[in-house]
């Protein structure tokens, strides 16, 4: 399996090289040259596997340069850190199947990918004798999951940028109370889009990238997306066992298009997903794209679901590559046009193609609170705000003849204020959060200026 860039100037990479490169050197995003597929019979053979074994079988289809035994160990070690024996259990509430992705160390779905990626980085660096300085931007959960994935590991430093005052208090504490010498938290005086743009700009400085051996943990790194593909397989198997259904629909709360792009890859591989339901909050660039072909950047609105407070979805370029028939020149032109104007336009034929795979709905804060309250009253089950956006969007747009799976992306305790305003009480506080506000903190506040952040990285890089 070889990897290429969406922009066409980087080709023929191995999986390991793609992981270590992160963002392609031509500014594009890396993808496998072909997406492997499963027949119905082949798919059925995977249905009885445990989550780690299923992950190995799916991921190994994309990896041919790491010995199978080593890859299996990396995956098994990653998921041994999850508190639930099923890793990503699925529960049925009020006729909806909720895929709980928050049983990892930081209680967010990002752990599914970043526990694996941390192991993978350490393995590849140990093999090569090299070092790495990871730079990433977070709108909430990626930061803590990435930090927990690499804290204390040899040959790795990690620099995480988050928008100051625009993540939940628990999310900030999860990042800033990790005081390992190799961890650096930067509170950027701006939005997540500002932070994400800075990270991309830094990676675009190829001399700086090479000098400091920069690596990526954001979903610009293909291994992040690949690990998330697995739970769409797992969800299908669990629902199919109970219902005997031929297809499912999956509702995905998303801001950066990474999680739902993983669903797109799973669908292309053969998982019988009729439609992916794209759920956004008031930052609705992605839902506007699906519903109206309107991909135009707007002001970022701070919301109760901060991990989705994004207007420029970094993984969207990967989907464009397929929407444009793998035409890298068309992708380059589109991204250049968007950089200049903040707008992308699509033909009626392209929009029809989009709508054959996706449906979408935007859910504002008031509707989010109502969804949490209603679901809790009817089932006793507590949704976090992001999951509530997914549940509400799914219920609005679902095909009622098919089972609906909603991805639950975070534990409700991570957003206690929003949950309390909805149900009138604090969500149960997991042990890992108890007393977290009293722990020592490590944090730097910094301007949203690329050169200042590059100087900080240069000063502290390994």
TrEMBL record:
Q: What is this protein called?
A: Threonine synthase
MF annotations from Gene Ontology: pyridoxal phosphate binding; threonine synthase activity
EC number(s) given by UniProt: 4.2.3.1
Source organism's superkingdom?
Bacteria
Q: Where is the Threonine synthase N-terminal domain?
A: 2-79
**What is the required cofactor set for this protein?**
pyridoxal 5'-phosphate
Q: Which residues form the Tryptophan synthase beta chain-like PALP domain?
A: 92-335
Indicate the family of this protein.
Belongs to the threonine synthase family.
| PROSITE patterns named in the record | DEHYDRATASE_SER_THR (PS00165)
**Which InterPro entries does this entry report, sorted A to Z?**
Ser/Thr_deHydtase_PyrdxlP-BS (IPR000634), Thr_synth_N (IPR029144), Thr_synth_N_sf (IPR037158), Thr_synthase-like (IPR004450), Threonine_Synthase (IPR051166), TrpB-like_PALP (IPR001926), TrpB-like_PALP_sf (IPR036052)
> Which of the seven top EC classes does this enzyme belong to?
lyase
**Keywords, alphabetical:** Amino-acid biosynthesis, Lyase, Pyridoxal phosphate, Threonine biosynthesis
Q: Which residues carry this modification: N6-(pyridoxal phosphate)lysine?
A: 110
* Swiss-Prot/TrEMBL GO biological process terms: threonine biosynthetic process
Q: Which NCBIfam families match?
A: thrC
Catalytic activity from the UniProt record: O-phospho-L-homoserine + H2O = L-threonine + phosphate
* Pathway annotation from the record: Amino-acid biosynthesis; L-threonine biosynthesis; L-threonine from L-aspartate: step 5/5
Native species:
Malonomonas rubra DSM 5091
């Amino acid at each position: 399996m070889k990897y290429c860039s969406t922009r066409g100037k980087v080709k023929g990479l191995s999986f390991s090289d793609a992981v270590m490169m992160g963002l392609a050197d031509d500014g594009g995003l890396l993808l496998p040259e072909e997406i492997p597929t499963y027949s119905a019979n082949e798919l059925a053979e995977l249905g009885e596997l445990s989550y780690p074994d299923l992950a190995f079988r799916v991921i190994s289809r994309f990896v041919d340069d790491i010995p199978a035994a080593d890859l299996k160990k990396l995956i098994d070690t990653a998921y041994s850190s999850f508190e639930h024996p099923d890793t990503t259990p699925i529960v049925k509430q009020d006729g909806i199947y909720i895929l709980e992705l928050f049983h990892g160390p930081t209680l967010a779905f990002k752990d599914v990918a970043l526990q694996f990626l941390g192991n993978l980085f350490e393995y590849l660096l140990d093999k090569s004798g090299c070092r790495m300085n990871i730079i990433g931007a977070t709108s909430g959960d990626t930061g803590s999951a990435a930090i927990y994935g690499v804290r204390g590991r040899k040959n790795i430093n990690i620099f995480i940028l988050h928008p100051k005052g625009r993540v939940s208090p628990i999310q900030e504490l999860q990042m800033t109370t990790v005081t390992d010498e190799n961890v650096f938290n930067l509170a950027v005086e701006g939005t997540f889009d500002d932070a994400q743009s800075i990270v991309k700009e830094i990676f675009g400085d190829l001399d700086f990238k090479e000098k400091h051996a920069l690596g990526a943990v954001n979903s610009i790194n293909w291994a992040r997306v690949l690990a998330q593909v697995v739970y769409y397989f797992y969800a299908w198997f669990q629902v199919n066992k109970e219902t005997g259904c031929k297809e499912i629909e999956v509702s995905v709360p998303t801001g950066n298009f990474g999680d739902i792009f993983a669903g797109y890859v799973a669908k292309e591989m053969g998982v019988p997903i009729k439609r992916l339901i794209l759920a956004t909050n008031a930052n609705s660039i992605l839902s506007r794209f699906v519903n109206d072909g309107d991909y135009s950047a707007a002001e970022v609105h701070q919301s109760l679901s901060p991990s989705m407070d994004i207007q420029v979805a970094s993984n969207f370029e990967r989907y464009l590559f397929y929407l444009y028939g793998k035409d890298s020149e068309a992708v380059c032109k589109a991204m250049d046009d968007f950089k200049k104007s903040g707008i992308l336009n699509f033909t009626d034929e392209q929009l029809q193609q989009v709508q054959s795979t996706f449906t979408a709905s935007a859910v504002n804060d008031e509707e989010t609170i109502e969804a949490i309250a209603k679901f809790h009253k009817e089932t006793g089950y507590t949704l976090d705000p992001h999951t509530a956006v997914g549940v509400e969007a799914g219920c609005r747009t679902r095909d009622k003849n098919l089972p609906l799976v909603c991805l639950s992306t975070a534990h409700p305790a991570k957003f206690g204020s929003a949950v309390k305003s909805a149900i009138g009480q604090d969500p149960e506080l997991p042990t890992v959060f108890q007393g977290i506000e009293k722990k020592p903190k490590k944090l730097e506040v910094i301007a949203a200026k690329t050169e200042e952040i590059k100087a900080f990285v240069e000063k502290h890089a390994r």
